[in-house]
Specification:
Elements lengths: L9 E4 L2 E4 L3 H14 L3 E6 L1 H9 L1 H9 L2 E4 L2 H9 L10 H15 L2 E6 L4 H12 L4 E6 L8 H10 L4 E5 L4 H8 L1 H4 L3 E4 L3 H5 L8 H5 L3 H8 L4 H4 L1 H14 L1
Parallel strand pairs: 3-4, 3-8, 5-6, 5-7, 7-8
Antiparallel strand pairs: 1-2
Pfam families: Glyco_tran_WecG
EC number: 2.4.1.187
Protein name: N-acetylglucosaminyldiphosphoundecaprenol N-acetyl-beta-D-mannosaminyltransferase
Length: 248
Amino acid sequence: MRFEEFTLVRVDVLGVQIDAVTLAEAVRTVEGFIAEGGPHLVATANAEMVMAAGRDRELARILADAALVVPDGAGVVWAARHLGQPVPERVAGFDLAEELLARAATEGWRVFFFGGAPGIAAKASEAAAAKWPGLTVAGVRDGYFAPEEAASIAAAIRASKPHILLAALGVPKQEKWLAAQATTLAVPVSMGVGGTFDVMAGVTRRAPLWMQRAGLEWLYRLGCDPKRIGRMMALPRFVMRVLAAKKH
């Protein structure tokens, strides 16, 4: 299926518009964005992000304006189905990032790795280059910087001429930074990837495949880092909001 034959369909999950796409369709959509030129923002919406958007008008606006919002998270997939607007599958941000890196290696797309603790982006890019020979790394930069450095960082990224910018700054910082710097960056595709670099660099591990398929990746993360319990409280609140929305 060529890109121009594929039409994005969005479903509403608690006020956030989610694209009902498969992983393969998301990759084809990004391929089309790169062919068109920039800028396009890709967001990976899980339950935590949806709940944050309900409190944060700026984040809500950014997601509404994003070129692609994939259903990242078992909670979002469940919610869409429960609300009568099912999406075909979960499109995890990590999986989408890996698929794009694989395509970049064969298509000659340049990728910039931005974010994470010092040294993590570099390790992630090295691991990616080893896994996908032919991958062109446009540049790397950690995510520790002062607000006044934002413009110069964006200009440096633009100068490296990437086709794809992966930003691991955490939600919602990465989405807000990418949106604010979109004009300066002029990158065809910018995507917030959260903790993806940590996994690629070998600092953390993803949940076993069976837990991913069972929608229990959140439980694995909590077991690995109990301090996430505060963030995880968004999940039961999300479920209650969805159940309440169904009644109406």
